[in-house]
Amino acid sequence: MTTEASGWEPVQRVRTYEQVMAQIEERILDGRLKVGDHLPSERDLAVLLGVSRPSLRESLRVLEALGVVDIRRGGGADGGAVLLGTPGPGMVNLLKLQLALGHFSQHDVLETRLALETWSVAEAARTSTEEDVHELEAILDQMDAPDITADQFNSLDAAYHVRIASSSGNALAAHLMGSLRIAIHKQMIDAYARLADWRETATTVRAEHRSILAAIERKDAEEAVRLVREHITDFYKTGRVGGVVLPDM
């Protein structure tokens, strides 16, 4: 196999792993690599790129962490690096760390969440199916369990909001919502811990969730948006999520 025949180019010896990644990214972006494709074997790809196998492995580990490739152990047709067809955890992990390091203010997080959630619920009210509604109802039924813990309640709360986003029919919106909720999970748990009686607040949250779902089921996008906005901002006020202090509206 020659570099001329394959189109792979030897990389320069500066930031080798980044240059390896750049060539793989370029082929993904221009369509030469697509979901399900296998990269050349580690040995062949190292030769094609003119890099050491440790440098190549470093690049592949980064792409694996980003959820771009799956490194399958073993030889044969099923082994090696394969381009993934579903989003990986890279966005979640990056966002979680950046929030923890204070790269974004909590007001930025709240405003982004409001923008994403109000858009999602409006679209869900317009396009949701009976299956969407039934699955949302099932999540709310689980939240009614009398022995539920605060952590379980918050996890189901996140699942409810992510399921609304997926009901919009926009897979990217659902992925963004899921990533955001995982990233702010600790903030939400801390907010419940600050409450004098989290179960009392949970009763309010349950009722608001039911009202939002009823608006979705009625296809009342305007009402659904209003309810979601109030639901989120009221909880941020009550639980002082992330230290955000909101003025009375």
What does this structure look like?
The chain is built from 12 helices and 2 strands, in the order ααααββαααααααα. It has a two-stranded antiparallel ribbon. β1 and β2 form a beta hairpin. The chain starts with a helix and ends in a 10-residue tail after the last helix. The mean pLDDT is 88.
Name the descriptors.
mainly alpha; two-stranded antiparallel sheet
Structure described in brief:
The chain has 249 residues and is mainly alpha-helical.
List the helices and strands and how they pair.
Layout: H1 3-6, H2 16-29, H3 42-49, H4 53-65, E1 69-72, E2 80-83, H5 90-100, H6 106-127, H7 130-143, H8 150-167, H9 171-183, H10 185-194, H11 198-217, H12 221-239
Antiparallel strand pairs: 1-2
Helix pairs in contact: 2-4, 3-4, 5-9, 6-8, 6-9, 6-11, 6-12, 7-8, 7-11, 8-9, 8-10, 11-12
Fraction of residues in H or I helices: 55-70%
Structural class based on helices, strands and sheet pairing: mainly alpha
Pattern of helices and strands: HHHHEEHHHHHHHH
User: Radius of gyration, rounded?
Assistant: 23 Å
CA-based shape = elongated
Unreliably modeled segments = none
Q: Widest sheet: strand order?
A: 1-2
Give average pLDDT, whole number: 88
Number of helices: 12
Binned strand content: under 5%
Biggest beta sheet summary: 2 strands, antiparallel
* DSSP, total strands: 2
